[in-house]
């Protein structure tokens, strides 16, 4: 027997503990690759990234600067603001699910269930009841006692619809002051007989001047962050 164990080791046979460790590592790699592949969809689906980007797009259109700031700048700003808003939620997910899973205290399925709780609570806070009711009815599910009892397949699409609606509402509110400036400039230029001069030539720098004078970026970002708390 003493000579058999080295022989088994030389043949490359694994002990049960080593096989369990290798299996666990393989599952971790599979989960990591899966998360990386669905990360863009998760970024848009379960975070306020869509709302932020829609508002910034409306703001740029309202200012009349179709290429400034650039798309890369707006996406980068939206990404970092999303991280700023989601950091407490991610910390809760890490504490409730990732840490116990890394220590081997819970399985992958239990970790996913625990990690979904903070994320579900965050989304439900910004989801309209009628959107939840619509998807719950479409899924033919029994009426839940509380919104926390709804599955993620109902919460996520309802959250996306609510975020799109909220983003468009904020965008319209931002658009109205600049629309008034466009209308006033167009009326003035028409009344003085400046028919050959496009009103946008005058209104665009005027809108930018007003936006800078009131510290517009600070107001917009502060309003967005306030709406997400």
What are the defining features of this structure?
229 residues; mainly alpha
Structure description:
With 229 residues, the protein is mainly alpha-helical. The protein has nine helices and no strands. α3 packs antiparallel against α4. It is elongated and about 75 Å long.
State the end-to-end CA separation.
67 Å
Outline the biggest β-sheet: none
Tally of contiguous helical segments: 9
Shape summary: elongated
Low-confidence stretches: 1-19
Q: Over the alpha carbons, how many angstroms does the gyration radius reach? A: 27 Å
Fraction of residues in helix:
over 70%
Chain-averaged pLDDT: 79
Give the strand tally: 0
User: What share of the residues does DSSP label as strand, in percent?
Assistant: under 5%
Element-by-element helix/strand order: HHHHHHHHH
Structural class, by secondary structure, is: mainly alpha
How is the secondary structure organized here?
Blueprint: H1 4-10, H2 16-45, H3 49-63, H4 71-102, H5 108-125, H6 129-138, H7 152-191, H8 199-213, H9 216-227
Compact description:
The chain is an all-alpha fold and about 230 residues long. The chain contains 9 helices and no strands.
């Amino acid at each position: 027997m003493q000579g058999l164990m080295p022989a088994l080791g030389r043949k490359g046979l694994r002990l049960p503990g080593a096989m369990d460790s290798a299996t666990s590592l393989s599952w971790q790699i599979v989960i990591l690759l899966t998360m990386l592949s669905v990360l863009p969809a998760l970024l848009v689906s379960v975070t306020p990234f869509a709302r932020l980007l829609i508002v910034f797009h409306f703001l740029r259109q309202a200012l009349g600067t179709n290429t400034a700031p650039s798309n890369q700048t707006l996406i980068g700003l939206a990404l970092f603001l999303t991280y700023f808003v989601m950091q407490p939620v991610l910390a809760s997910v890490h504490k409730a699910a990732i840490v116990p899973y890394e220590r081997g205290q819970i399985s992958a399925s239990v970790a996913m269930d625990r990690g979904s709780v903070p994320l579900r609570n965050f989304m439900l806070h910004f989801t309209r009841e009628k959107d939840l009711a619509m998807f719950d009815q479409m899924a033919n599910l029994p009426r839940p006692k509380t919104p926390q009892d709804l599955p993620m397949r109902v919460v996520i699409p309802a959250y996306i619809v609510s975020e799109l609606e909220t983003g468009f509402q904020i965008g319209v509110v931002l658009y109205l002051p600049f629309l008034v400036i466009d209308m006033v400039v167009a009326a003035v230029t028409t009344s003085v007989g400046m028919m050959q001069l496009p009103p946008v030539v005058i209104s665009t720098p005027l809108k930018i001047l007003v936006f800078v004078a009131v510290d517009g970026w600070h107001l917009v970002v502060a309003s967005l962050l306030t709406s997400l708390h």
